[in-house]
Amino acid sequence: MNDARNETAGVGALGYIGIGVSSPEKWAEFGNLLGLMPGAPGTDGSIRYRMDDQAWRIALHPDSSDDCLYAGFDCGTSAGFEAVLVRIAQAGITATRDGDLAHVRGVMELARLVDPDGVPLELYYGPRIVPEQPFRSPQALSGFMTGANGFGHMIVNASDPAASLAFYVDVLGLSLSDRILFEAAPGVVIPLVFLHCNERHHSIAIAPKMPGSKRVHHLMFEVPGINDVGLALDRVTAAGLEISATLGRHSNDHMISFYVRTPSGFEVEYGCAGLAVDRATWTVSDHASISIWGHKREHI
Ligand SMILES: [Fe+2]
């Protein structure tokens, strides 16, 4: 990993995600419970959800994969986009500019590539925003914590975690936040590595891939306050959804959150009070526990 990276030449935020879903009906109810706002459908047949002024953040594509189909990184500006493409080319990796796909996604320019596990990634700038159609959550929720910090975070299950770490840091320009050596069972330690590209403590985290696991372990959505978290927990509990980890506070990003199983099998973490990273002063730390309290699970 190259610590002499250029902080300005990396991606700026995890801006959107596309998910293949076998049950759009269950996802519609799930999205409603979490407070996502239905947006205009995509020209590609996707069902789109909003979290803020951006035209969409989450796109659901009816298919049988029940997994991440693509993730988009916002590069902020045309200059930022071009700088990331230069960085990628210097790493010997091909990113393909795709104007047709940019039109479908509703962004000004886009280039696509894949991560070491073959997860399609899209680099872009200039997402469409629709402030003339104000964000209104179907729940009593003022909004999500998004903006320049992106929609949230994604934990990827990597078949070669070292290769994925090198890719996301050296090629895309994210920075190491910290690591947790998570003792999943006595004597079974799972290293989790957390990476940031803005003030959000992590936009991407890398976990070792287990047999049969999906591309994504979980997505995280951050809301303004603890009451937003508690009210959502009440809603998903009343709806009979599986709480895969109880309310708790993480040791590294201080997020107070719970985890709920999506209709696609992976999880969504829903929380508040995440730590803001100052990239100028941040120093890396190592943790032996995933949480200060809570986050009790029956399954990893
Ligand atoms: Fe998380």
Automatic annotation (TrEMBL):
Name the needed cofactors: Fe(2+)
Tell me the protein's name.
Putative catechol 2,3-dioxygenase
Stored Pfam families: BphC_D1, Glyoxalase
User: Which residue numbers delimit the VOC domain?
Assistant: 13-126, 150-273
| MF term (GO), any | dioxygenase activity
The family note in this entry says: Belongs to the extradiol ring-cleavage dioxygenase family.
Instruction: Report the InterPro entries cross-referenced here.
Output: Glyas_Bleomycin-R_OHBP_Dase (IPR029068), Glyas_Fos-R_dOase_dom (IPR004360), VOC_core (IPR037523), Xdiol_ring_cleave_dOase_1/2 (IPR000486)
Note the Gene3D superfamilies from the entry.
2,3-Dihydroxybiphenyl 1,2-Dioxygenase, domain 1 (3.10.180.10)
Give the UniProt keywords, A-Z. Answer: Aromatic hydrocarbons catabolism, Dioxygenase, Iron, Metal-binding, Oxidoreductase
